[in-house]
Every structure is written in C-alpha cells, then in structure tokens.
Amino acid sequence: MNVYSDLSYSALKYLKDTEININNLLIITGDFNIRDCFWDSSFLHYSSISEDLLIITDSFDLELSTPTNSIPTRYSDTIGKSDSVIDLMFLCSRSRELNEHIIHPDWHLSSDHVPLTITILIAKEFIHSSKLKILKNSEEEEIFVKEIINIFKALNTLSIMNCELLEYTINSLATRN
Asked: Which of 18, 50, 65, 117 is least crowded, fewest Cβ atoms below 10 Å from its Cβ?
C-alpha cells in the first residue's frame, strides 16, 4: 500500500477511523509527513501522531523497516529548514526476507523526496496446468455445443430479480460439471 499523508495527516486519520479489511499486506510505504526521533536520529522530538502510525501498521502486522543507509528521505530547498526522514517503509513483521530497504539519494532528480526500494524475492514454483481441447468440427464439438445449448435453454431467468441472484446464476453455470 502506498500512502501519502498531508500535513493534516488525513491519510492516517482515515486509516485510524476506518475499519479496513486488507489481508496479507506485505508493505506500506510512502510520505507520512511525520518527523520523529524514532526514525530520524537528527530530530530530537517525539510526535504523538507517530504513535498512531505505529498502531495502524501494527494492526496490519507490519513493522518499521530499517534502511541499509540511514540518510534523509526529503531534502529541503529552504534555507534554515533541515533535511528530514518522512518517507518510511513498513514491512511484514514475520518475514526474514523483508527486513530492510534502500534509500536512493542519487535518484531523486528534481523531486525533494528520494526513492525507497526493496527487493522482494519470488520463489520458483512449478504450477502444473493442463489444457482440454475439442477438435473443431469433431463429434465431441457437436455434443459439447448441444449440451451448452440445453443448459442455457433450461436456465430459469425469471427468478433473476437483482444483482445477487444474477451473480448466483452465473456462478452456478461456472460450477456445473
């Protein structure tokens, strides 16, 4: 999930106030606009809004990722304002493969934010699949087409009064043997 939370923390407020049902979330990353000493050693203060962020990410079973290079993620072009770490990455807490990310200061081009990356390894897995085919103009094709026509002729469409009944009818067609 990619998040941009403005200076009013509207994205965090939404995530906190809305019951979101997302299963198997591996990563939340983005610009959270929260300065905190917990992830930025050059910032000496604690932000109460960061506690909300940590509670939200914990509810998804994610934890703050540690970058391989602890450098700012946002570079200020205003004199007197310091660079900061406000772009964060939260990763699946039960994964040994997902435990750190890289901050790329040379990739930011004209943006004041730098990209964060992580490598997610995909395991090789053989998925056995097979194709069934009926030869064109064969006796099997003729029998199959007749069976399909009979199934549709027997279909009772008078009972389809709403979207749920339509979906049920379609699903029953899909599961026919």
From this structure: 18
Which of the listed CATH numbers 3.90.1150.210, 3.30.43.10, 3.60.10.10, 1.10.472.10 matches domain 2-117?
Answer: 3.60.10.10
Concatenate the DSSP letters of all residues of the chain into one string: -EEE--TT-HHHHHHHHS-----S--EEEEE-----TTT-TT-----HHHHHHHHHHHHTTEEEPEESS---SB---STTPPPB--EEEEEETT-SS--EEEE-GGG-TTSSB--EE------------------TTSHHHHHHHHHHHHHHHH---TT--SHHHHHHHHHHHHT--
